[in-house]
Amino acid sequence: MKQKYNFLAFAIFSVAAIATAYAATSSENDALAIASANVSLTQAVTTAEQHVGGKAARAEYEHHKGQWVFDVEVVKGKQVMDVKVDPISGKILSAVKDDTDHDDAHDKED
């Protein structure tokens, strides 16, 4: 019986250790990934604001469809645009109307 509890404790400890190590590596890589960008977050926000003609409400550096991009949410009047900016060239990759804010559920308050 004692061996069963020891094994269970070891298994739980192992899973927790692996999850913690993965989370630490994951967040560090996300934060450090911006070091390879030629464009700053400020420059990406300015580019997105000028493209839409509005004000940035949110901006982040994220991995999207296999590449790193600046994702900037720009508000113009009552319209919200989700603008992707290339971190190497500083060019607009896409600008899409964001009616539902569906991909930003983590930003909403509970």
Give a verbal description of the structure.
Strand 3 and strand 4 form a beta hairpin. The protein is globular. Strands 1-2-3-4 form a four-stranded antiparallel β-sheet, covered by helices on one side. It folds into two domains: 1-36; 37-107, Nuclear Transport Factor 2, Chain: A. It has two helices and four strands. 39% of the residues lie in helices and 30% in strands. It has helices at 2-32, 41-52, and strands spanning 55-64, 67-76, 79-85, 92-97.
CATH class category name of the largest domain: Alpha Beta
CATH topology of the largest domain: Nuclear Transport Factor 2, Chain: A
Shape: globular
- Radius of gyration based on Cα positions: 20 Å
Averaging pLDDT over every residue, what do you get?
Answer: 78
What is the percentage of strand-forming residues? 25-35%
Task: Profile the largest sheet.
Answer: 4 strands, antiparallel
Quick description:
The chain is an alpha+beta fold and 110 residues long. It has two helices and four strands. Strand 2 and strand 3 form a beta hairpin.
Features:
39% helix, 110 residues, alpha+beta, 4 strands, four-stranded antiparallel beta sheet, Nuclear Transport Factor 2, Chain: A, 2 domains, single chain
Give the secondary structure arrangement, pairings included.
Blueprint: H1 2-32, H2 41-52, E1 55-64, E2 67-76, E3 79-85, E4 92-97
Antiparallel strand pairs: 1-2, 2-3, 3-4
